[in-house]
Specification:
The complex is a heterodimer of chains A (about 200) and B (about 750). With about 200 residues, chain A is an alpha+beta fold. Chain A is built from 5 helices and 7 strands. Chain B has helices at about 5-10, 15-35, 50-65, 80-95, 135-145, 175-190, 200-235, 240-260, 275-300, 305-335, 340-370, 380-400, 400-420, 435-450, 470-485, 495-505, 520-530, 530-535, 560-575, 590-595, 600-620, 625-650, 660-680, 685-715, 720-755, and strands spanning about 70-75, 100-105, 110-115, 120-125, 160-165, 195-200, 455-460, 490-495, 545-555, 580-585. Classes of the chains: A alpha+beta (about 200), B alpha+beta (about 750).
């Protein structure tokens, strides 16, 4: 009697681990220090957030758009322009673009199966993360709360996450902040440095 | 001495200086407004007052922007070459840089949607860089894949490129279009050696109409004066015979147009007829008065006797002159039933001009002649010739009254047979002579690049809901297919071609078709609403997606054919959209079609009103039902003849020609009144003798006034607009026909049917 019971308990535990593994509760300690709606508040497609999570600094793009593919296509086009074939980050960029494409297709498939047909926006989160030891890129399929200007991730399914070259991630974080917050390169760098150093406003 | 004669004696005696001073004061007072008279910058007064349609047009402009694009075509056998495409690019850039241009759509600015990794990607229709063989092949493939550009930006034979110019939206004095057209024409002249260039569009039509009105005022008016002066000189052979009628004409014109300007009105294609018409009409009373003055001198009176008799003669002429002015004015006033403001203005101010000219004739001519020496009159060759002619005419009408009536009836039947061929048809470009640049340009662009007249539709749901269901667009597509089955329609523009393009690019398909799922539709619509597609999509679907626009480009077919298509489309729309949707036709072209459809109705109403009021006036004057009915015969016959000639020659009813019946009737009846007043005076002699004496006595004055009127109207044939040319020609012709009827048919009918005068009758 004990063996079947043990098997059931093991199976249940395994299932729970498997089921829960892709889902990641957003760390409660994170703090959104800056946010901006892009490309414009009148035609919102995404929100870019600068987030501090303990020792980590994140530049997070929450795409929440009825034309997800078009938005990702714009990101892809910028990425291709920023990292041409002869550049140092080309290989990293290629990987990012491939993962982004795959994530977009996943989101599209999930969108087609959505329970509420009235919901016409597709969501995808791109995170560029840096801390003292690593640089990381993550792609997540989130459940969102709030509206543009105060978007919040309730839960998120991790689609892809990988370590990347430091200079590639740093440069991309800078470029995203620069583009989204309409800053020049040095102002964007100063902003990120300040937030990483503890500034909260 | 009658009371009227007493008034005339006062006017020609102690009252003449105060009266002249009053005329001078009013003239000076109205000269100011006349100096500020402006020509209408658009053609708004040429369309009927229709609040629903005006609101719909305003809504269309508010939602979708300026609907009056200009179109330039560039034709070159080497269009698809490095040089040819560089020329299109250069021309596009130079036009786009002109003030007042919002954007230019051409081969070098148009974009296509192609299928990329992430779906639809915008690409230029013509790749940047030199237009080499590879680029040419790519371009041909792109044109084939994007049929919405065929016949708009490139002709079927690939030798003509179209450039669609969207002016910035502004109205009134800020309207940039007139200045833009001048700049465009200047710019196109720079390129005439490098290709054949044409310019058209509703804005060009309006601009050119205003220009031609100004030109006509500069050329036709002096010509009318010259013709009148020559004719009066030939007929009277005296300076007074020329100067007095021309003085009355000039002052009448100044007063009428001064009042027109004082009322804040502007000249348009119809009111451009007012000055020559007022001038011509002003002459007739002066001619009758001057003729009366000469008759006094010719009948052997001494100068003193003539001066003594002159007030009485003037008083005698006041009644027929007033009644002829009344009937002419009533004919013109009957145009008030027209829904077109320009026609109503013409009728009202034409009638006012007649009244003014009567007053001025009765003041200036008798007073002026009272200062002159009584002439020694001898019959000139013209008068002798006229006298012999009139005697022959009188004899014929007495000897062969039945033959005359039979011939008139035969001609009437022939004309009546041609009446069914008469049709209401308005072609705005057809208003211009075939040699006018706009007519040439429009015909060329219509032939090579498709239609030039835009019929607009606005589609919305009756429940005010958004157009975001597949069924909405499938119905619109069904309607589009029905519309394109009509050969009169060259192209259809709407959100549908854009949706098909996006769908093809998104799915990587080769077929142009609408989305098949709601998700795809929403995605495509969202995509079109983004910055990349907003400019194009915004012209056909409002941002809230509650109203869609469809533009059907018609070939230059005229309103008669267009009306048939519109009625058919209306029927199709009911079937396709049902009660859940509201499809509102609108736009300048639709208004023209609607107005044209009302022309026959307008003509019948105005002519009926003219007939009724003129008959009443004659009845009051002659106090005889029989004579009133007989008076109608010589006036109705020439109207039917004229309409028959219009039918036989294929002259359509338009805003200009529709006025002919009412105006010509009011004018033609003048001679009849003069004839019958004279006949009544002599009726005691018996019908035959009265006819003989009337024809030979008053016939000369009738001939002179009619000749003046006819030649004066025919001078209008040198104008720039076909409706006014036809109006001038046909009114002149009708008056000529009416004169023949007055001198032959009326006497014949009097001989046959007039009752002998009873004892004691007035």
């Amino acid at each position: 009697m004990k063996r079947p019971l043990l098997l059931v308990i093991l199976a249940f535990s395994w299932a729970q681990v498997c089921w829960a593994a892709p889902l990641r509760a957003v760390a409660p300690a994170e703090q959104v220090v800056r946010r901006v709606v892009v490309p414009a508040a009148e035609q919102p497609q995404a929100e870019v957030q600068i987030v501090r999570r303990g020792p980590e600094l994140l530049v997070r793009t929450i795409i929440f758009s009825p034309i997800l593919r078009r938005v990702v296509a714009a990101i892809d086009a910028k990425e291709a322009k920023r990292w041409p074939e002869e550049s140092a980050g080309f290989v990293e960029s290629q990987r990012y673009r491939e993962q982004l494409y795959a994530a977009t297709e996943t989101v599209r498939q999930r969108f087609a199966e959505r329970p509420d047909p009235a919901q016409n926006r597709q969501a995808l989160v791109i995170e560029f993360l840096r801390n003292k030891t690593e640089r990381r890129i993550s792609l997540l399929l989130p459940q969102l709360a709030g509206e543009f200007g105060s978007l919040r991730i309730r839960t998120a399914e991790l689609l892809q996450s990988w370590r990347s070259r430091g200079d590639y991630v740093d440069e991309n974080m800078l470029e995203i902040v620069q583009d989204s917050f309409h800053l020049d390169h040095s102002a964007a760098a100063a902003l990120l440095a300040a937030i990483a150093g503890g500034e909260t406003r | 001495m009658t009371r009227l004669e007493g008034i005339v004696r006062w006017g020609l005696g102690p009252g003449r200086w105060p009266l002249l001073a009053a005329v001078l004061l009013v003239t000076l007072g109205l000269a100011g407004p006349l100096a500020g008279l402006r020509v209408e910058g658009d053609t708004s007064s040429m369309t009927a007052v229709n609040p629903d349609q005006q609101a719909a047009q305003e809504r269309l402009r508010r939602m979708f922007g300026n609907d009056e694009a200009l179109l330039v075509s560039l034709t070159s056998p080497q269009l698809l070459s490095v040089e040819g495409m560089a020329l299109v690019r250069e021309l596009t850039q130079r036009i786009a840089a002109l003030p007042g241009v919002a954007r230019v759509l051409s081969l070098t600015t148009a974009r296509q949607l192609v299928s990329g990794r992430y779906g639809a990607e915008p690409r230029p229709l013509v790749a940047n860089g030199p237009f080499g063989q590879a680029a040419q092949r790519e371009f041909l493939r792109a044109v084939k894949a994007n049929p919405q550009y065929q016949g708009l930006l490139i002709s079927g034979d690939l030798q003509t490129a179209g450039l669609v110019i969207q002016p910035v939206a502004a109205a009134g004095r800020d309207n940039p279009v007139p200045a833009l057209i001048q700049r465009l024409r200047g710019l196109l002249r720079d390129y005439h050696e490098r290709g054949e260039l044409h310019l058209t569009g509703v804005g060009v039509q309006k601009n050119d109409v205003a220009e031609y009105i100004r030109r006509d005022q500069r050329t036709v008016l002096p010509l009318v004066v010259t013709v009148l002066a020559l004719l009066l000189g030939w007929l009277f052979r005296r300076p007074g015979g020329v100067l007095f009628p021309l003085l009355v004409t000039g002052v009448s014109l100044l007063w009428t147009m001064g009042l027109f300007a004082w009322c804040g009105l502007e000249m348009n294609t119809i009111s451009a007829l007012l000055p020559p018409v007022v001038m011509i009409l002003s002459v007739s009373h002066s001619v009758h008065l001057y003729h009366g003055w000469l008759q006094l001198a010719a009948t052997g009176n001494s100068p003193e006797q003539a001066r003594e008799l002159w007030p009485g003669r003037v008083a005698e002429l006041v009644v027929p002159c007033s009644f002829t002015a009344l009937t002419t004015g009533l004919g013109l006033l009957s145009l008030w039933v027209s829904p077109i403001p320009a026609v109503r203005q013409f009728g009202l101010f034409g009638a006012l001009g007649v009244a003014v000219s009567l007053v001025l004739s009765l003041l200036l001519v008798p007073i002026g002649l009272s200062f002159c020496a009584v002439p020694k009159v001898r019959l000139g060759s013209a008068q002798g010739l006229l006298g012999r002619l009139l005697a022959r005419v009188a004899a014929t009408s007495l000897q062969r009254p039945r033959t005359i009536m039979s011939v008139a009836l035969l001609l009437l039947l022939l004309a009546a047979a041609a009446l069914p061929r008469l049709q209401n048809n308005t072609r705005l470009v057809g208003f211009f002579r075939a040699t006018a640049p706009l007519a040439r340009d429009t015909a060329f662009i219509d032939e090579h690049l498709g239609g030039v007249n835009a019929l607009e539709f606005m589609l919305s749901r009756t429940d005010q809901g958004t157009l975001d269901q597949l069924g909405d667009y499938q119905r619109l597509e069904h309607f589009e297919k029905r519309a394109l089955q009509h050969p009169e329609i060259a192209k259809a523009f709407s959100i549908l071609p854009l949706l098909r393009q996006v769908q093809r690019a998104e799915t990587g398909s080769t077929e142009l078709q609408l989305p098949t799922t709601v998700d795809d539709l929403h995605y495509d619509l969202e995509l079109l609403a983004t910055a990349d597609g907003r400019d194009q999509a915004g012209q056909f679907l409002t941002p809230d997606r509650k109203t869609a626009r469809m533009t059907l480009l018609f070939h230059d077919v005229g309103s008669h054919s267009a009306l048939r298509v519109v009625r058919d489309l209306d029927w199709s729309a009911r079937e396709i959209f049902g009660s859940a949707y509201r499809l509102v036709p609108t736009g300048s072209y639709y208004q023209v079609i609607l107005d044209s459809a009302q022309l026959v109705n307008t003509m019948l109403k105005s002519f009926g009103l003219s007939l009724l009021t003129v008959m009443l006036a004659i009845l009051v004057l002659l106090r005889s039902v029989r004579l009133t009915l007989l008076a109608m015969i010589p006036n109705l016959i020439p109207i039917v003849w004229t309409l028959g000639v219009m039918g036989a020659l294929g002259i359509d009813l338009s805003s200009g020609t529709v006025m002919i019946g009412a105006v010509a009737f009011g004018l033609a009846v003048d001679d009849t009144i003069h004839y019958l007043v004279c006949y009544r005076r002599l009726q005691g002699l018996g019908a035959r003798k009265a006819v003989q004496a009337t024809t030979t006595g008053i016939g000369r004055a009738l001939l002179i006034t009619t000749l003046v009127l006819v030649l004066g109207f025919w001078t209008g044939c040198l104008g720039s607009f076909k409706p006014t040319i036809y109006f001038s020609f046909l009114v002149g012709g009708t008056l000529l026909g009416a004169l023949v009827c007055d001198l032959l048919v009326l006497p014949a009918s009097l001989v046959l049917w007039a009752r002998p005068l009873r004892e004691g009758a007035p």
